Amino acid sequence: MLVSEFDIISHYFDRQSNNRSDVNIGIGDDCALMTVPNHYQLAISTDTFVSGIHFLPEISPDDFACKSLLSSLSDLAAIGADPAWISLAITLPYIDNKWLKSFSDSFFNKLNYYKIQLIGGDTTRGPMSVTYTVYGFVPYGQALLRSGACVGDWIYVTGTLGDSAAGLAILQDKLKVKNNLHKKILINRHLRPKPRFLQGKILRNFASSAIDISDGLVSDLKHILKASCCGAYIKIDNLPQSEALKQSTTTEQNHLLSLSGGEDYELCFTVSEINLKILEPILLNTGLNFTRIGQIKKQSYGIRYYFNNKEINLDIKGFDHFISYL
Amino acid sequence: MLVSEFDIISHYFDRQSNNRSDVNIGIGDDCALMTVPNHYQLAISTDTFVSGIHFLPEISPDDFACKSLLSSLSDLAAIGADPAWISLAITLPYIDNKWLKSFSDSFFNKLNYYKIQLIGGDTTRGPMSVTYTVYGFVPYGQALLRSGACVGDWIYVTGTLGDSAAGLAILQDKLKVKNNLHKKILINRHLRPKPRFLQGKILRNFASSAIDISDGLVSDLKHILKASCCGAYIKIDNLPQSEALKQSTTTEQNHLLSLSGGEDYELCFTVSEINLKILEPILLNTGLNFTRIGQIKKQSYGIRYYFNNKEINLDIKGFDHFISYL
């Protein structure tokens, strides 16, 4: 039986997932020692996941590992970075070897896929939570920021919106879906987000701003608008939706899910008319659809919604763990 | 009243603590964007602190901020790095504005002192805990590793040992100290560790290995011995002790505290005879004492303890949150 912190680390987490040449010292000393290649900036993002807050308490260790890791990595994709390393701080109420084996197997499986190396972390006792810090490289000055949108730029999103929130609703028994394939697709979109690394990398050279959709389209687009001092309109008719979502919900439901449902981890980005012509054929080659959903306007315009070419009133809020509690 | 995650970040944590030129984008985008200077390695370390496990639940937010932050930074000192940045993941059960103000004031006060910039993090709801990832720079190839000790090297420690554990015992009402000054000194050593940045920086060029004493001298020295494939002896008579500790405990108590008491955050390092002559006068100038406590031997020698030039039997274990629980 494993009983100490050092046992847990050596047994489950001290695996040579990838032997990257930029990791000079990995797990096992007071610090990891890393080399960042010349002419690159280091992108860093931190995310915490608490059992029962960010996840249904009954989630499997496999799903927990995949969903938390993939959604953390999405921040790197959103800024146009290539993923490189990760630190893992894991807090557990007790040692459950079966749980740890399943969690760590899934965790390293994904790290191997993305060629990411675990460089360190901490293992502590306490209420269950996981904090990742993820690291990636982006060529100097080419990062996709929230602050670059300009009046007249078109607003795009990758993939489809609202699936993850529908998947969560199914898991919570708030949405009934008879078609088993649709049900599986929607739940899978919730539990296995796909960081859009390829799209982020392509957008580096063409998009004026970008963000990943974690809190919901409107909530995240507002971050772009605030950082870029702009307004915008969204054409609700244009929101890209999967067949699974459309067949499983009413029009009102799926519009709301696409506007405010979180955790799709698609990219929302803005692009000027002039860059669009070069970008479109390149993006088409990635095999993932991308859809124009609106346009950037002056700040005084605020945010407006159109449906059938008519403006409609909506009050959309994103998800906030504190607000939902108070 | 502050109600959202974004409110907490903008009100308490989005302060320009230091405007470092190597922080290209700090808080407020999907990732922070950083520049690591040429010819330097980036040192990274992660530590989690859980209320009630790493800290007495009644600890003040000021003490919580200082102790957790300073002990995290100690890992950078131990590897010989200059501190640069920090990420903060904070999980809180509810929004307590008074607590947040005191915590964040102390946190930024220390960051300012060490010229460290907060570059991002996460704010979530859940059982209280804090995870820091700290970052520092070390000239390429000069980091102090655990793995460099050689047979014949002398073993040294900075400062005095056992004070922090005695301070904790006082706070837990397990140790009674009548002398108020001594009591204050010992508690302060527990709540306000000092990362030994200056000493770490000096040792870069001379020490063969180093570690910071977080789990207790013996426990941490064993990490050096394991990584360096060596054995060692310790002369218990030589362990450096403060007057406050000596006056407050029996000889047996203070020897045990100095050998196994954690959280002094002094450096334990090894140095060859030849480097010692250059190192000694430089270290003397730092104003902090350093003491020879033993010597590195072959791995087959194991670890042995001497008192009055006689070998004695001791079974010393360091502190482990999981062992203490099971």
UniProtKB/TrEMBL annotation, chains A, B:
Residue sites binding Mg(2+) 3 per the record: D30, D75, D212
Keyword match Magnesium: yes
Species of provenance: Candidatus Providencia siddallii
InterPro entries, alphabetized: PurM-like_C_dom, PurM-like_C_sf, PurM-like_N, PurM-like_N_sf, ThiL-like
Binding site for substrate: H54, E263, F319
Protein name: Thiamine-monophosphate kinase
Entry binding sites for Mg(2+) 4: D30, S45, D75
GO biological process, one term: thiamine biosynthetic process
